[in-house]
Amino acid sequence: MKYKVLLIEHDIVNLRVLKRVIGKANLDVISATTLTQAKAIFSNTSPEAYLCAVVDYNLPDAQHGEAIDFAIDSFMPVVVITSSTEDDVRNNILSKAVVDYIPKKNAQIYEYLSRLLIRLEKNKNIGVLVVDSQRKQRNAMTSLLKRHNFIIHERPNAESLNNYLSEHADIKLVIIDNDLKNEAGVDVVADVRKHFHKDTLGIIGSSTSSATEASSRVLANFIKSGADDYLAKPYCHEEFFVRVIQNIEYLEQIELIRKTANADYLTGLPNRRHFFSQVNEYLNRDLEHKTLALMDLDFFKTVNDSYGHDHGDIVLKEFSKLLAKHFSTQCISRFGGEEFCVFLPNVSLKEAIPLLDSFRVAVSNKRFIRKGVGITCTVSIGVTSKFKRKVESMLGYADENLYKAKDGGRNCIVGDG
Q1: CATH of 4-117, one of 3.30.1380.10, 1.25.10.10, 3.40.50.2300, 3.30.200.20
Q2: I need a labelling partner for 115 at 20 to 30 A (CA). Which of 90, 246, 333, 414 fits?
Q3: Domain 272-414 in CATH: superfamily?
């Protein structure tokens, strides 16, 4: 779904630039230069179609932020842009349920807005859990989180917290108060960290403390127990968002690094190293069946020689998509060149043969098209269920069967026998 952004800005030059910025974030822009015009436009659409509204604080017919109230009342997250940086204007803006405000005098306004819009769209798939015994404190945090489109979870205590986290895979960040009714937050963090690593779950500890020394002591205890950050109450909403976002973005950066390290650069499939790691985990389990298939595109050198390496890359990418589609629940990998591998845990050799043959037929029926030129390819497959301690032994048997498939005319499957 491609979301819309309602842009209300009276300055024509700034309007034109902002429309380009929002468009680059892959969002549709619905623009208005006055509050009256915005109301007319919005009366014919549903708020669910809008990611947010970007609103100028001072408009010809709304000079004191009235357009902000209109957008909030229309159930849209609101980003405010303003040419005034005076305290009374800032305080007025922050007294409203806005996502953020951006001074027009800030030279980084356009870059920041672009990142903020992308962030608001990503947040729709990210869960944040607030654990706090005080309903008022929970409501204050969840209200702020809703402005940024997060999926909200809340609990008054830490009972069965690890089970709850396991059942809700969307949760990427937990905010835990230290003064829970039956348990200290720092102890909860220590227990959670036994089950959830810092690379997959962020934790922010929180507490109310009037004394600086006491607050520092709680902060240190949270960090030592495994928290990533600390939020002292009371807090301003800008500090709250900065801490939440920086912890979410840290996890995203770790995930990106992991994917980059584990993925083949051309096809995006898991690479050989990651495949070995995945499969050896399965082989250490007590599985009834272990089946591995090694496959190789037939006459792939001819494709590169006849049509060029660009067409060869198209074949490899489209073949990989087909492989991922057919074996979405299995371990797959590009081993290098035109060689690929599939491991099928708890699938017998007898069950695997028809699955692999269905894939072989799909490959032979597919046309790989580049610049109007279409070609066809076939694949040879060697499959085995023989196993001696490590995946390397299975690969040896599968490779022997693949050689037989190549020697037997290609475009076929050879298994143990």
Answers
A1: 3.40.50.2300
A2: 90
A3: Reverse transcriptase/Diguanylate cyclase domain (3.30.70.270)
Residue 100's φ and ψ, nearest 5 degrees, are: -170, 170
DSSP conformational letter for 96: S
Query: Quick one: which H or E segment has residue 122?
Result: helix 109-122
How far is Cα 359 from Cα 377, in angstroms, rounded to an integer?
12
Nearest to 202 by CA among 160, 244, 149, 169: 244
Give the CA angle between residues 76, 77, 79 to the nearest 5°.
125
* Digit-coded pLDDT (tens) for 134-193: 999 999 999 999 999 999 999 999 999 999 999 999 999 999 999 898 889 999 999 999
Sheet holding 331-336, edge to edge: 331-336, 339-345, 290-297, 379-384, 413-414
Q: Between β-strands 290-297 and 339-345, what pairing exists: parallel, antiparallel or unpaired? A: antiparallel
Q: Contact at 8 Å (CB) between 56 and 82?
A: yes
User: What is the rounded CA–CA span in Å between residue 30 and residue 158?
Assistant: 44
Instruction: Please name the residue ranges forming H helices in 293-380.
Output: 300-307, 309-326, 349-365
Over the stretch 23-62, which tens digit does the pLDDT of each residue have?
888 899 999 999 999 999 888 778 788 999 999 999 999 9
In this structure, are residues 360 and 402 in contact, taking their beta carbons and an 8 Å threshold?
Answer: no
CATH topology of domain 126-262: Rossmann fold (3.40.50)
